[in-house]
């Protein structure tokens, strides 16, 4: 069977993408399985309509991600979902993963974390934290 150059490139490109997605899925699963302590923080801004305040908080969280004991982090905002059990009243969420509770405890007193609180706490009116560990 004869294939054109365009068909060959298209089929190998699809295979490469599929292979990459499988690799990404495998890597994410492995990385997530190694994390034992999850620290999830939700922030309500004093000025919820202020794009500047939101940008300042996000910038502060990006700096905060430099804490050495953080294994993985995610900065998020409410998804566009609408079900009775979903709370979308917060502005920004900060989800971090640590190897253990001792690493999370050291994060709490890390100078980078303390500087973040000092520089950004004026931006929010409310913070809720959910910490969790692996269920046994």
From TrEMBL:
- SUPFAM superfamilies the record matches: Dimeric alpha+beta barrel
Which Gene3D superfamilies does the protein's record reference?
Answer: 3.30.70.100
- The Stress-response A/B barrel domain, residue ranges: 37-132
InterPro entries with a match to the protein in the record: Dabb, Dimeric_a/b-barrel
Q: Which domain of life is it from?
A: Bacteria
Pfam families associated with the record: Dabb
Name by which UniProt lists this protein? Dabb family protein
Recite the lineage of the species: Bacteria, Pseudomonadati, Bacteroidota, Chitinophagia, Chitinophagales
């Amino acid at each position: 069977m004869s294939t054109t150059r365009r068909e060959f490139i298209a089929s190998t490109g699809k295979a490469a993408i599929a292979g990459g997605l499988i690799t990404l899925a495998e890597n994410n699963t492995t990385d997530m399985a190694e994390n034992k302590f999850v620290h999830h923080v939700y922030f309500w801004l004093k000025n919820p309509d202020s794009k500047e305040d939101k940008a300042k908080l996000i910038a502060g969280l990006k700096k905060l991600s430099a804490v050495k004991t953080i294994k993985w982090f995610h900065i998020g905002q409410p998804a566009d979902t609408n079900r009775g059990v979903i709370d979308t009243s917060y502005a920004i969420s900060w989800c971090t993963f640590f190897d253990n509770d001792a690493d999370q405890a050291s994060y709490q007193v890390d100078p980078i974390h303390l500087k973040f609180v000092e520089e950004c706490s004026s931006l929010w009116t409310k913070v809720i934290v959910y910490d969790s560990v692996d269920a046994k």
